[in-house]
Amino acid sequence: MLQSLYLSINSLTGTIPLELGYSSSLSDIDLSTNLLAGALPPSIWNLCEKLASVRLHGNSLSGSLPEPALPNSTCKNLEALDLGDNQISGTFPEFITRFQGLKVLDLGKNMLSGQIPQSLGQLELEKLNLSNNNFSGMLPVFGNSKFGVEAFEGNSPGLCGVPLRSCAVTSRLSSGAIAGLVIGLMTGTVVLASLLIGYMQNKKKKSTSESEDEIEEGEDEENGGGIGGTGGEGKLVLFQGGEHLTLDDVLNATGQVMEKTSYGTIYKAKLADGGTIALRLLREGSCKDRNSCLSVIKQLGKIRHENLIPLRAFYQGKRGEKLLIYDYLPIRTLYHFLHESRAGKPVLNWARRHKIALCIARGLAHLHTGFEVPITHGNVRSKNVLVDDFFAARLTEFGLDKLMIPSVADEIVSVAKADGYKAPELQRMKKCNSRTDVYAFGILLLEILIGKKPGKSGRSGDHEFVDLPSMVKVAVLEETTMEVFDVEVLKGIRSPMEDGVVQALKLAMGCCAPVASVRPSMDEVVKQLEENRPRNRSALYSPTETRSEIGTPF
């Protein structure tokens, strides 16, 4: 009896057959990333009470979604419904709000319009994507589920509500308003850090039709102390997706230190409405002059790609304090998945690792080729890769090296050397470019394949340096190449050659070539990874599947 149908990432054409709805034992359907067209057959809901997941992402399905024949169908076992990146039209299919067990809903990149029903907020969704449609009206209140701007961006300007702009008519800070922005430490048993934002609007208000709002030049209503110093004359720049971040919203935000990096300190900040943002306070004295800094920031603020974390806003104060504002994503880094305790974590089989590597490669390729002047990442490493529950990866910290004064840039290169990601040519030129990014990606791909941390061990008294390319070269010479792979990479695959594992190893070594000119471009890397996909990709969409719950991974 057919229980699971996994035919994703092929070249299937035609329509979804009506007969599919008569496979009475079918619970999981994955036909994503094919060339299927036409409407979704109504018979699919014949399986309603059995279905656990339906994934049809990335086809050319059209028309409106058919309703279940039974008006009160709840599809009680359905946890994931992914119909994103199709051509589905009509209004929001309100019957979906009856699917009380639904955890993942993706209707992004379709042609849906009208209002999103308020009843959607009653579902206990963990993942939601309604972006790039034509929805309008007020967003539902999602209760304990907090979704970022990316879940709703790309819709009608009339779409409003948290986390987008307020639906009520309110006064907004104009381009002549003043912003002072200060991070202050607080003592207390609950709050570890507080974000205190003081501001004062200029009496003369101006309107602007520009795509970004700038708030500059003036005096603070009140002064604050702490890490960022006092406020004062400064500039607040809002980019796409950050328009809702008015100073009123974050005046009483509280936060805590998440991490300290070479660039500065990262805070998790909670807003009064329950939303959360991530703030990066750049190190004092680490950045170039005011005008040079702002020019780079404006370029970074325009970058939008599904595998890159977007910059939502930037603040530059009179006394040199600089704050980058991002969406907060409660997900883990690739470093966490690979190197910290694996107990209870999802199995990182080859299909999942390949997906992560391909996401990273696509993000880097966009930086290198998506702009008139290429943008380098400058700090590619596993700690700067965020991985969600479905093993989609997004890069952080890209382009920040261009903000740094030479001494700080040199320090970051030194850290890259210690961590094993530094390209040989950086020893003499000390300036990152697209080829040094490719080298760092090669090390990262080896890290994904081998499962070992590159560079210095970091343990007290341990001065061992793990050179991943040399490790592979030795294994090849000794004809023990298969022993170099992480054990989870090889489990469940039919053949390292047929499933693209060997090709990925060769690609990684090509990226790590000592001579920069012979390294492939990131576009070429993406092409090779796409051409050598793993044959069995059925485990890509099992976010709750952990090592303790299953035996042999797919």
Automatic annotation (TrEMBL):
Main location: membrane
UniProt keyword terms in alphabetical order: Leucine-rich repeat, Membrane, Phosphoprotein, Receptor, Repeat, Signal, Transmembrane, Transmembrane helix
Origin species: Momordica charantia (Bitter gourd)
Compartments, record wording: Membrane
Segments of this protein annotated with the region Disordered: 206-229, 534-554
TM helices/strands, residue ranges: 177-199
A single MF term (Gene Ontology): ATP binding
Domain Protein kinase: 252-554
Sequence ranges of Acidic residues compositional bias: 210-223
Family annotation (PANTHER family): KINASE-LIKE PROTEIN TMKL1 (PTHR48008:SF11), LEUCINE-RICH REPEAT RECEPTOR-LIKE PROTEIN KINASE IMK3-RELATED (PTHR48008)
Family: Belongs to the protein kinase superfamily.
Name recorded for this polypeptide: Kinase-like protein TMKL1 isoform X2
GO cellular component, one term: membrane
UniProt superkingdom: Eukaryota
Membrane topology: Single-pass membrane protein
Gene3D superfamilies for the chain: Phosphorylase Kinase, domain 1, Ribonuclease Inhibitor, Transferase(Phosphotransferase) domain 1
